[in-house]
Amino acid sequence: MTTIGIRGAFFDFIDDPWKHIGAEHEAARFHADGLLVIDDGKIVDFGLYDHLSERHRGLEITTIRDRLILPGFIDGHIHFPQTRVLGAFGQQLLPWLQVWVFPEELKYRDRDYAREAAGRFFDALLAAGTTTCQTFTTSSPVSTEELFEESERRNMRIIAGLTGIDRKAPAEMLNAPEGFYNESKRLIERYHRSGRSLYAITPRFAYGASSELLAACERLKREHPDCWVNTHISENPSEIRGVLADHGDCTDYLGVYEKYGLVGPKFSGGHGVWLSDDEFRRLSKSGGALTFCPCSNLFLGSGLFRLGRATDPQARVRLSWGTDIGGGNRFSLLHALEEGYKVGMCNNTLLDGSIDPTRQDLAEAERNKVSPYRGFWSITLGGAQGLYIDDLVGNFQPGKEADFVVLDWNGGQAAQAWHQSLVVEKEGPQTMEQVANLLFGIMMVGDDRAVDETWIMGKRLYKKG
Amino acid sequence: MTTIGIRGAFFDFIDDPWKHIGAEHEAARFHADGLLVIDDGKIVDFGLYDHLSERHRGLEITTIRDRLILPGFIDGHIHFPQTRVLGAFGQQLLPWLQVWVFPEELKYRDRDYAREAAGRFFDALLAAGTTTCQTFTTSSPVSTEELFEESERRNMRIIAGLTGIDRKAPAEMLNAPEGFYNESKRLIERYHRSGRSLYAITPRFAYGASSELLAACERLKREHPDCWVNTHISENPSEIRGVLADHGDCTDYLGVYEKYGLVGPKFSGGHGVWLSDDEFRRLSKSGGALTFCPCSNLFLGSGLFRLGRATDPQARVRLSWGTDIGGGNRFSLLHALEEGYKVGMCNNTLLDGSIDPTRQDLAEAERNKVSPYRGFWSITLGGAQGLYIDDLVGNFQPGKEADFVVLDWNGGQAAQAWHQSLVVEKEGPQTMEQVANLLFGIMMVGDDRAVDETWIMGKRLYKKG
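^ inputs. structure came back:
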């Protein structure tokens, strides 16, 4: 058991900026000269260096200069077995799955391929500053095992599960519901809460699930209520039609998951682009969450997620944000913030009354603006809350696990440094407002080159080359 | 006068891929082992190395391995004086101009600031592989002069002009129409066709132009018909309302520019997001062009440009593509291709009948898909055609100027190389299809890190550090 200290400029959140409209800084915390004390991978103290150093005499301190230290980024929706096939050309969701994705995922029945891929997957996450993800695997348990084995080697907190599908995919990919139930049970017993691993019962999506498969998921959740549930919802119009055709007794997409008792705390539905206002309200009430994947929603042409609706204080829906690799084309959640900002601004114009005065909703229009506070909260503490893991990660509260990312605000395209010099010159940021402006520069003008180091449980696992 | 040869893998276009639906490769040309012969900055021969080497014995040859060599990228719409203020937070077009852009542009009345900025601007372009741009300056001639001085030092082909505005901006920014006319005339005489410089008569936009200012532009164009005309059109709904309120005798945005005789060959209107079908048809007929700026259209929430409508063979509109720095947040035209692909896919879903069967148009839906052929044509030969400079640049035809970019298909995020290994392993690409797949990987999974070298008139001006 070793105690270490990290000294530097820290920025994290203690509340949701959407609750502080006009005063978002109240949700954040900035220590220009802070100290993070880590014991055996967990945070035991955090505050201003000048306040804390007295009571931690003799502490071995690593000083990180000219950087911003943030909690590690949390990706709420990603597909491990699409690591290689990200950015595939030319199709919306359904044909894209058939043409590009399913053939690639079938390779993950091979243990060697799955193992190599798992290594590359976590390398890509760490280089992007992502320290936690909730990920899909494939319908083959081999892929789920190799994923968890690799995350345990790196001691990373992840949520994952065998990904069930029993229709509308190649025959060799389909799970029999009973087999899916048995394999899931075995994997839950082996991996759930082993080390930092958490298990999600994972029906891929209602579009590819029979009633029997969903009933198997219901049984799993009843028998393992501590487990998560991860799936997709309302991503693409054609998909939604297919779901309603198959599950004729349900009036909407959310209704299918409700019918099988899956919606509630620890439930994540990826996308939700086409959810009705009623579905938003029911989700809000249930405690279930959505995952916003702007990069993927644009890449597959799925549509513009109604971020301002999801963040309606009257019916607030828990949200995490995801890259959705390989529907998303970049591993960096900074890119998800960039694309989320753009989706939000398009919504802003649609709602400001300039196109259709009858649809004007200025409060919803405003909630669509992804400020740096809203953005970085969403991929740290907000993401942790969306995934119900904010007791474990998401900010620098003592008791939490010491996963963090070290950002160089000048990293990125050639124009980056001169842009950022509008905010700070040689000295680092001294005020919250400067930090916010630098962070907006990182998410909109910078990119993953801003990620200089990534630390897991107080150990540095990535340093930019 | 020195003759040099570049040996490597070359890819360029000889036709418009939108004219070859289902067989886009017919519009392209690939030499896995090619030779480009350059004399005094101009291309004098181009073809397969084995065919050409015989007739160029003793030629000093630079061999470029493991790379793809493409014509330099052409940015049809960019704002030089927004180099530093790109990616500014939180506003649609009109307030964004007031809050962020006009204050920055006012700094360019200072010659030292403008000179420093010009250096940084061209550094950023070259690092992005952009060899030609059509750029706005400010309402101060100082900025226009410093821009042209710097481009001439680098011997780059650009189109630019003093950018006139006489309303709806800070008083110290406004041009008097007569002053604008006189200064433009002086600058045309000094810079137009001096070296590689070309002059564009540049009313900023109808929103900020009185009838008198537009009449001054009309007079300039009549007196200097060889000059270009560069402006904005139909970017944002609120802007459009303002234009129609000010120019009450015009029924639409395009009509304002038509009234002053500005629309025709060498006319570029940036954006055109909200153009009517009728405006598309009139533009097509006139020979005037639009510039598609997808990154900016998303960043400012302007909307989804109807790419499939602009490329309707019945009323094809000339197009260049632009980054629109600083409404766009990245200098790299690869990023414009990424965002253009996403805009196109969103349009594809809106037009495929899955949302509204009455709006179904499958042909237009398909024309929205930005394949690698369509994309890279758009930022090379297509962009040159859009700007009426395809007699000078855009591909490797002998007689043209030798501006080119050297691409490393593995440059980008950590996941890039494994993704590209789906296409080629150790050997470089041997077939057109492999090239197209690598290029799609560059535009969607890679980024400006793919730009390894940028050459201007046969001289290497940029090498990735």
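Chain A has 17 helices and 16 strands. The two ends of chain A are 30 Å apart (CA to CA).
thumbs up if we can close this ticket
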